[in-house]
Amino acid sequence: MSHRIGRLALAVLLALPAAASWASTSEAAVRNRVPASAPYIPQPTGKLPVGMTSLHLEDTSRSDPWVPSVKARELMVSLWYPAAKAGGVRAPYMTVKESELTLREAGASGVPGDLLSKTRIDAVKDARPAKGRLPLVVLSPGFTKPRYSLTGLAEDLASRGYAVAVIGHTYENVATSFPDGRVAECVACKVEPKNPAFWAKVGQIRAADVTFVLDSLLAKYSKLIDRSRIAMGGHSVGGASSVAALLKDSRLRAGMNIDGTAVVPVPSGGLAKPYLLLGSEAKHSPGKDPSWDQSWPNLTGWKRWFVVTGTEHASFTDISVLSEQLGIDDGADLPATRSLEITRGIVAAFYDLHLRRKPQPLLDDPASRYPEVKSVG
Fold first, then answer.
1. Prediction pTM value
2. Closest by alpha carbon to 323, among 139, 75, 106?
3. Which of its termini does the chain have fewer beta carbons within 10 Å around, N or C?
4. How far apart are CA 262 and CA 257, in angstroms?
5. Rounded-to-integer distance, Cα 283 and Cα 290, Å
C-alpha cells in the first residue's frame, strides 16, 4: 500500500492534514477498507468493569482564550472510572456530528459520515461508580485531536482502578459537541504563525484548563477521587503541556509526555516532580529531538526516558489501532495492538509507582517485558 494512502487514512480517522489530491486519488481505496463491522478499541486489560460519563464544565472566571467574545471557558470532559458492576449500555466513542465534521475536514466524502461514532468501546455509559476513593489521572490529547483519541489508554487505567479525566480543549480540535447541540470547531487551527509564542499560549491555556477541571471534579466527586493522589499525562502537545500544569498546580504529583516535542520546556530552575518521557525511537532518541535533550537535565526528580522501536507519532493513541482495522498502513513497523499494549503497560506502571507507591521493576528494565522498549535515561 502506498504511503499516500496511509496518510489519508490517518486524516480520515482523526482529521490529520490531508491534501486535496490525496482525497481525489485515494478516496476509493480508503472507502473499500471500511470494515463490515464497527471499528473497536481493544478491551482493557484490568479486572474491573469500566464506566464513563461526559461532563460539561463552564469556567465563568475567564473568557475563552481563543474566542474572547465567549465570556466563559466551556469544556467537555470524559470521566472514566471503575463501575460498581458490569453490564449496561455502552458509552459512545464520539457523537455523529463530531464524526461527520472530523471526516469532512479530512476530505473523506466517500466514507460514511457516522463511521467514527460507531467505534465500539467497553465502558458503560453513566454506570454507577464502585465505592472508594481513587487515584486520578488527567489526560490531555494532541493539538487538533479530540479527547476520544486517548480512549484506549483511559479505559485501561480505569479497569485497573483509576479515575481518568480526558479533557477536550475547546476550539483546539475539529469538533466539540455540547449537550445542547452546539458544536465548537477548531479556531486555534487557523492561527498563524504557530511559533514558540503560540505553543507557549497553548501550554498555559491547557494548564489553566487542568486546574479548573481539578477544581470541578474535586467539588463534584469528593467521594470518588483521592485528592492526595493526582497526576497528569498526555500525548503530543498534551504531554508537553503537563510541564506547565505541574508547575502551576501543586495537586499534581507526577506527569508524563508521550511523544510530544517539548514546546513547553522544563525551566532551568528544574522540575522536581516525577516525570516520564515516552516516545518513538526514530523521533525521540537522544539527539533526535533537541527539546527533549534540553529538558532532560532540568528534570531533577525521579525520571525515565523510554523510546519504542517501530512506532510513529500516532502509535500511542487510538489512531493507530483504528487505522490497522481499516487495513491501512500508518507508517509504523510495530503492530498497533502491540503499541497499545506497551503504552498501557508502561503508563500504568508509572502511575502505580507514584500514586499507589507500588514497586515497579518494569520501569527499571522495560525490555524484560517489552523488548521493543529502550531505556535511554
1. 0.91
2. 106
3. N
4. 8
5. 10
